[in-house]
Amino acid sequence: MKFATFTAIVSSLAVASAYPITGDVVNCRTGPGTSYDIKKTYKEGHDVKLTCQTPGEVINGVKLWDKTSDGCYVSDYYVKTGTSDYVVAKCGGSSGGGSCSAPKVNQDTIDLITDFEGFEDGKIYIDPTGNPTVGYGHLCSNSKCTDVKYPIPLSKTDGKKLLAEDLKPKEKCLTNMTNDKVTLNLNQYGALVSWVFNMGCGQAEDSTLIKRLNNGESASKVIAEELPKWVYGKQNGQSVKLPGLVRRRNAEVDLAKTATSAKALPVKC
């Protein structure tokens, strides 16, 4: 009888750890906010298992975000947990998704990004991978860039403001996807933020580069070996090596090799 009771309790806990999605199509993101990249989507009624929860961008009055077993974040507004409070442990440590303050990149990083992104007179243009873009490489949510709060054509001043906003989630997701084994100076960190900004948090998080860093390998070695591999993009439905990406990766590696005493990672939470 005691064994049966114990089994029933375990079964009920297993069921309680999965919660249904309430929105029609809900995006699961690489961090706790809508500015983070979409990693996957869930349909209404899909059960998600939660590993931890963390504060993030407020969605319809709800500040809490749920990290699912897929390793991405959904606003708790779209998850039927039955409460506005925590139902699992709070996310913590370097993979906590919001518990650490990310370092800001230095001016050398800003200069590198603006040089490669270009400005295009502040008008909307299509980047080499076919995405509508404006300012210093801001990827728009649609062809008219209605997600941009500044007037278009953008002024260079507004373009730089938009770039600073775009870099914040990239700084955050790079910080959160690395563990305490990763030691980066500010130039190495800036080189990787430029890469994440260019390629996206989702691709970066799943990369061999980040896995090697988290395994404790030398940052200088890993960056020099892995960054040059990220030079391919889609053209006419085919994967091709893009000269612009080759130049950018070379510049990022050069920045990472530039000596500096300024430390970036790890950060103390």
Automatic annotation (TrEMBL):
The superkingdom listed in its UniProt entry is: Eukaryota
GO MF, one annotated term: lysozyme activity
Q: Which catalysed reactions does the entry list for this protein? A: Hydrolysis of (1->4)-beta-linkages between N-acetylmuramic acid and N-acetyl-D-glucosamine residues in a peptidoglycan and between N-acetyl-D-glucosamine residues in chitodextrins
What's the protein called, per UniProt? Lysozyme-like domain-containing protein
Per its UniProt record, what CDD domains does this chain match? lyz_endolysin_autolysin (cd00737)
One GO biological-process annotation of the entry reads: defense response to bacterium
Task: Give the UniProt keywords, A-Z.
Answer: Antimicrobial, Bacteriolytic enzyme, Glycosidase, Host cytoplasm, Hydrolase, Signal
Database matches in InterPro entries: Bacteriophage_GH24, Endolysin_autolysin, Endolysin_T4_type, Glyco_hydro_24, Lysozyme-like_dom_sf, Lysozyme_dom_sf
* HAMAP family to which the protein is assigned, alphabetical: ENDOLYSIN_T4
The residues the entry assigns to the signal sequence are: 1-18
